[in-house]
Amino acid sequence: MMTNLFFDHNATTPIRPNALALAASVMGEVGNAASVHSFGRAANKHVETARRQIAETLDVSPQQIIFNSGASEGNNTILKGFSGQRILISAIEHPSIIECGVAAEKIPVTEDGVIDVVAFQDLLNHPTPPALVSVMLVNNETGVIQPVAEIARMAKAVGAMVHCDAVQAYGRIPFTRESLGVDFLTISSHKIGGTHGVGALIGAAGLQVPRLIEGGGQERRQRGGTVNVAGISAFGVAAVEACASLDSYQNLSVWRDRIELHVQQSSNRVRILGQHAPRVANTSMIVVTSASGETLLMAFDLEGIALSAGSACSSGSTKMSYTLTAMGIEPSPQLASLRMSLGYTTSEKDVEHFIKVWDKLSARLFKD
Amino acid sequence: MNSLGFDKKPSDTRVVVAMSGGVDSSVAASLLHEQGYDVVGITLQLYDYGEAVARKGACCAGKDIYDAKRVAEERGFPHYVLNYQDNFKQSVIDDFVDSYLKGETPIPCVKCNQTVKFKDLLQVARDLDADCMVTGHYVQRIVNEIGQSELHRAVDPTKDQSYFLFATTQDQLDFLRFPLGGWTKDMTRTHADRLGLVNADKPDSQDICFVPNGDYTAVVKKIAPEAKRHGQIIHLDGRVLGEHEGILHYTVGQRKGLGIGGGFTDNNEPLYVVAVDAQSAQVIVGPKEALARDIVLLKNGNWLIDPSFSSPISIDVKLRSTTRAVPATLICQADRVAAITLHDPQYGVSPGQAAVCYQGGRVIGGGWITETQLSHIKKAA
């Protein structure tokens, strides 16, 4: 019997049992959170509970949380809100920033995948200071933690607003809106063990957050559309659990490092990107030089191990990621990238199994 | 022995199926999966359809990939999409364009089978530890008494695709399987219905996959604007009969759409394209007799028999995908060159097309037509 291992937690992570139980129970209730009657009030209570839970994890007031459909919406909302003005983003942002249809200048990254603050300063020294700077806190492909607090300070010095896509950082490393010093934050529920299709935008106190979806007056007129009551309540539970277990999350780095050491020792074709930069505990971007590189991901899948070739892209086809290009890797058919991302359900047995499969596949595929 | 010829259980036999998104390969994959094989479907993303026609929103290739993916999901076997746009551009599209610029009439499907599918994809299948690779082609692979795999025409002559597979090497053939070769299209459709495949009613593709609406000239002109070069249409006797808007609109043997009014000779006989001269951008026309050729020279031959050099081999040769095979004699030479003598002259043999050689139902190989001649004996007669 084949063991199925989910080593793709940066794409999505299994729903937490308590979040699932609450979502299922709330789904069984009737009620639109915007309605004035008792059903509406009961639904709204679930939403407000989650709002308070999430606010506490980020040390903001509940009014600063705007629920939406997820991180892509959150990122689009902010970028489109600054459309037509000068915007700086990093070269390794998520596609929902890079491809959202708003022109932006890109801040380069170093070979380690860290935003280049010297280059950033050069971009700030410009007759027109940027209206918005948008940088991610943790890169989804390499797991590299970005110097957002420093970038925010530099941006603020020229009067720019700062947005941070914190999707891959939330529930993994400690931070608050204030510790980062940013004006807007994007987070997502399914990356921390909630459901798909739910996220939140957080604005600094008193700040007008741009609106993307209008009409309906929900979320204090900041985001139209009936709120996903069950999904939001699960988000609250997931946020509490994930943020309460940040210490144990760090332990994933022991297993991550063990795998990295093994694959690097097993072959000189293997490089780990961003290994010398500060990273979240769960992510490893493994780059392999081999003519059979493109089959690696498939071969692992056929062995029951779910990995990713960088960001899970919509077409499902394999193609070199722009994050790697930004880190100075030349695209080549001889090069394959494998993103391994562990999560709260990963066990030591899984790690042993992964190593076994790695040995089997590398013996077969790395012959050229 | 299982149905694919391996001495093990179907569940221990890994089969990579090249899935185009059409009915044939979908049925092949689904049936093998139903029989318990360890089926892995792979679809190649070969080109950007929107880019090919410079039209936004068009996405046929996208639909094909989607269909293949849906079939695999519904039937419950793994499926992957590989981006082969670069390989396909280099190996197939550029060659297609070059051929037209040289005044030839190419067959991109053969190039695709030869390079992308049976070379690159086949290597992926081997890397995935597959025992064989399956396609939905209508062609048969038969293992003879000495254990050699032979390539044969499909049972259904109206679906036979052996012409497009002549460049398959022995090594590739050994690794390939064509489960639909013994079937009629109706049988395939019946199975598609029975299995409830999402693309069961999808029409057969007729055109070259990366050419929208059959308009290959638009594709060639977009990639190579020099293909628009105008030139003269000249009769064999030297008369200039008119102008044309690019030699790519003409193929040897063509009668319709010459753009010279009725296109008839003084004797009221139709005129045909006799030759296309890329250098002078001239299209030469003449009466049907002028097309007669009985010697066909080939390059880049691929032989599935031992090509005993210089000794004549009796064959039937198919000179276009749409014409019947005719009796001929083949002489293979070194450097993958060959000469074919046709028993009776044929009309409209075009450089750039393939000459595929058969012995009975068996494909013994073939090559690309470089030159055609009419022997003196025939001329005298």
Supply the key terms.
A: 368 residues; alpha/beta; Aspartate Aminotransferase, domain 1; 2 domains; 3-stranded antiparallel sheet; B: 381 residues; Rossmann fold; SH3 type barrels; Elongation Factor Tu (Ef-tu), domain 3; 5-stranded parallel sheet
How is the secondary structure organized here?
The complex is a heterodimer of chains A (368) and B (381).
Chain A (H helix, E strand, L loop, with lengths): L4 E2 L10 H11 L10 H21 L6 E4 L2 H11 L5 E4 L4 H4 L6 E3 L9 H8 L7 E5 L11 H10 L3 E5 L11 H4 L3 E5 L10 E5 L14 H4 L7 H16 L1 H5 L1 H15 L3 E4 L9 E7 L3 H10 L2 E2 L10 E2 L3 H5 L8 E7 L6 H18 L3
Helix pairs in contact in A: 1-9, 2-9, 5-6, 11-14, 12-14
Chain B lengths: L13 E5 L4 H12 L3 E8 L3 H5 L6 H16 L3 E5 L1 H17 L6 H20 L4 E3 L4 E5 L5 E5 L16 H6 E2 L7 H11 L20 H8 L7 E5 L4 E5 L27 E6 L4 E5 L5 E12 L9 E6 L7 E7 L5 E10 L6 E6 L2 E12 L2 H5 L1
Parallel strand pairs in B: 1-2, 1-4, 2-3, 4-7, 8-11
Antiparallel strand pairs in B: 5-6, 6-17, 8-9, 10-11, 12-15, 12-17, 13-14, 13-16, 14-15, 16-17
Kindly state the mean pLDDT of chain A as a whole number?
A: 94
**Rg of chain A (C-alpha, Å):** 21 Å
- Tally of separate domains of chain B: 3
CATH superfamily annotation of the largest domain in chain A: Type I PLP-dependent aspartate aminotransferase-like (Major domain)
Query: How does the helix and strand content of chain B classify structurally?
Result: alpha/beta
User: At the first level of CATH, what is the class of the largest domain in chain A?
Assistant: Alpha Beta
CATH architecture of the largest domain in chain B: 3-Layer(aba) Sandwich
State the oligomer. heterodimer
Total helices of chain B: the number is 9
The CATH superfamily of the largest domain in chain B appears as HUPs
Q: Regions of chain B with pLDDT < 50 over 5+ consecutive residues?
A: 53-59
Shape of chain A: globular
What is the terminal-to-terminal distance of chain A?
31 Å
